[in-house]
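Trying the structure run again after the queue cleared.
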Amino acid sequence: MSSCARQDNDSAASVRSRSLRSLISLLGARHRREEAPRGPRRILRPQRAPAVLLAAAVLVGCCLLLLSPPTTAGPEVTLYVYAVTPLRARALEQKIEDSMPGVDVTVFGKLSDFKTALETSPPNAALSPRPVLASLNRGADLQGMRAGSDAEQYLLISTRALTREMFSSLRYGIVDLVERKSLPKFVAGLLGVSVAPEVQRVTKIEDLLQLLQFQTADAVLLPERFRADFESKSKMSFTILSLSTAKVGLVAVTFLSDRHSVEHAIRRLPKHVMADLGVDEWK
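Done. Tokens:
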């Protein structure tokens, strides 16, 4: 839920609490007046309603006030995001949501969770790398671009010397971009080989470095834009290859409903948020 919705809930709860306290004070004051000593009454004065009836009426009012649902202005549109980035899911979610008032943003750290949410509770729009959308049978209605290209270069990184003849026999690590069964074939396409290799999928960029450190993988595939940061976090010596076949589609957006309301917000994302997503414009 967005921060605005939470504030509305807090405000509604505060109003109900103050109202209840006021009613209780009123009831107490009424009771004290009823019990206070009085002078002789005039015989012709009408008889007042018993205090118990007044208390019952106030009690009913309190119950109705407490049981009534809070008035909350929910988000107008929803956006699901799955992206390859060093940022934690919650950090990226906060940055995007702060830049899109009125849009409820959910960033997923796992591809499986992203897929499940799309199927069980479809949003107005979903944003992810183009291969992810393709694996879910979704088209790219709005394509992210960087430096005029709709794809980015992936690098093959290893702590050992590499030759093309070795490619099919190595174990690889990559951040998940397609479904589990399709991932080996997808990696084979990036390597330009016909035999699908063994692949270890991870959820975060930092996990790729650990695969090499613990020798769980012989090589990893990394977006070129993360190269400098990747190398700076380790004292290991790397062999780095840039293959002409290792191109991966940048993030794109698919609209599931109400395109107009969410597209405008996406197109107005600030440059620093676009950079986190790996693009600089939409096409």
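The CA atoms of residues 189 and 245 lie 7 Å apart. Worth checking whether this holds up in the mutant runs.
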